[in-house]
Specification:
The chain is mainly β. The protein has one domain: Porin (Beta Barrel), CATH 2.40.160. It contains four helices and 19 strands. The strands form two sheets. It has a 16-stranded antiparallel barrel with strand order 1-3-4-5-6-7-8-9-10-13-14-15-16-17-18-19. Strands 11-12 form a two-stranded antiparallel sheet. Strand 15 and strand 16 form a beta hairpin. It is globular. The two termini are 47 Å apart.
């Protein structure tokens, strides 16, 4: 039996059994005194309208001008709570949007098709959790199995959260407006020691990115140091147990001698078998200088708010081990983010400015992460610009003399602002050049490479959201 294959089966069995228990009827032999405590239902979620104005972007290696588009989002989740220990969390989420590339820019398609809304519905959460200990105990926490949202960096409003919003060989990154968490599927053990030191240990299975079903083992830790400093670190043994070895560590056969060779640089001297599997590591810190002078967590206008003045940062390594001649510099696999919350004196809840540097010489593109293995994955892609004769979006090509554009797109930025208008309504605004990607209803026009690569590429976004 392959390593962790038992745990993969156990995860599936736990999900099935947990769901069965949640829907089981009370046996007739139990009287009212012996019957288990009834579930209470706690609904929550949000609904919002988002509007985007993109100043400039690229799609399939071609620069595009300004574009405006809207979308709406609905999230409905409810908790089934039994007593103080058992909770079942489940819900759905959906988006309604239009093509982010105008139809008249989609070749012949735009001449015949009429713009239509794109509907996307999916499961937002489906987790069974059992808590232990009390909130004021020296050791307490909970165990969970299923699909759950996860976020470890509270100050990351847009950029950051690298450990799980990234790929390993190739090291791509992703961002989503006003959603800096990710969704993981598997089992987690969350605990807090002495009401300070928090730890999450998770065994998860890949359900979003090809190759599917690979197991990953991760640990994320958070430790406040007084009221001034908060430290965090984490490690993710990504795809430590592949569901199918030849997908996670692809190999190809050389036609001339039927010999299995590395999936990249077949004709060269490089003999490394490239793999998606790797160890990702993360470290972060938040410094709150106002805590030195007292508690400024009030909401009175004119006083410092709880988010004001915080300085924070995060750095990650997307693969600790070098691979051949393609991934042979660890500094090219290290996204770094630094941010600062402007003092707004409770006029706004938070205004976060973030800067990012990621020195990868390859496109931020996950196409080979989802393409069929025969494509030679996991090589870094050459950029869509290679198919466009006059495009500047190319990597170095000695044969044609093309330069490497992707050494010039290393810096990203983001400005995020939010204001709560009471307990159930918020207004959010953001301007950024991040890792946004275009979306169209037609596969031949979809671009898995990020769309914002030059100083002229950026967007503004506005959102009104109701929370219950």
């Amino acid at each position: 039996m392959k390593p962790f294959s038992f745990f993969r089966s156990l995860l599936g069995a736990a999900l099935i059994c947990g769901t069965s228990l949640a829907h089981a009827e009370t046996p007739d032999s139990l009287d009212s005194e012996d019957a288990p405590e009834a579930f209470s239902i706690v609904p929550h979620g949000f609904a919002g309208l988002q509007s985007f104005r993109v100043a400039g972007y690229k799609n399939l290696g071609v620069d595009r001008g300004p574009q405006t588009f809207n979308n709406s989002v609905l999230n409905f989740t409810f908790d089934l709570v039994s007593g103080k220990r058992l909770t079942i969390r489940s819900g759905i989420e959906g988006y309604v949007t239009f093509s982010t590339v105008p139809y008249d820019k989609l070749g012949n398609v735009g001449r015949t098709e009429v713009a239509a809304p794109l509907w996307s519905w999916y499961m937002a959460q489906a987790e069974i959790a059992y808590s232990f200990g009390e909130a004021d105990d020296n050791f307490h926490g909970d165990l969970g199995v299923g699909l759950f949202p996860y976020k470890y960096n509270e100050e990351a409003r847009n950029l950051g959260e690298y450990l799980f919003r990234s790929g390993t060989y190739p090291g791509w990154l992703s961002t989503t407006f006003d959603w800096t968490a990710t969704r993981l599927t598997g089992a987690r053990f969350s605990s807090t020691l002495f009401n300070k030191w928090h730890n999450d240990v998770m065994l998860t299975t890949e359900m979003e990115w090809f190759p599917f079903y690979d197991l990953s083992l991760s640990w994320v830790s958070d430790l406040p140091v007084g009221k001034v400093l908060d430290l965090g670190a984490g490690v993710d043994f990504a795809r430590i147990s592949p569901a199918k070895e030849e997908y996670t560590t692809p190999q190809v056969t050389e036609a001339t001698n039927n010999k299995t060779v590395p999936s990249y640089y077949m004709k060269g001297a490089d003999t490394t078998f490239y793999t998606y599997s790797g160890i990702k590591a993360m470290a972060r810190a938040t410094f709150d200088p106002k805590a030195i002078f007292g508690d400024f967590n009030g909401k009175k206008l004119g006083t410092l708010g709880k988010n004001d003045g915080k300085i924070f940062g995060e750095v990650a390594v997307l693969g600790l081990q070098n691979q051949g001649t393609v991934y042979n510099k660890v500094t090219q696999r290290m996204p770094m983010m630094v941010g600062f919350n402007l003092p707004t004196f409770n006029l706004l809840d938070v205004v976060a400015i973030q800067m990012e540097y990621y020195g990868s010489p390859y496109p931020n593109d996950y196409i080979n992460q989802i393409a069929f293995v025969s494509a030679g994955v996991p090589i870094p892609t050459k950029g869509d610009g290679n198919s466009v004769a006059d495009s500047k979006y190319t990597v170095a090509d000695s044969a044609s003399g093309r330069p490497n554009f992707y050494t010039k797109d290393n810096v990203k930025w983001s400005i995020y602002a939010r204001r709560w208008m009471g307990p159930h309504l918020a207004i959010v605004a953001q301007a950024a050049r991040d890792h946004w990607r275009t979306s169209t209803p037609y596969a031949q026009f979809r671009d898995t490479e990020e769309a914002l690569s030059t100083s002229k590429h950026w967007y503004m976004a506005f959102k009104i959201v109701s929370v219950w």
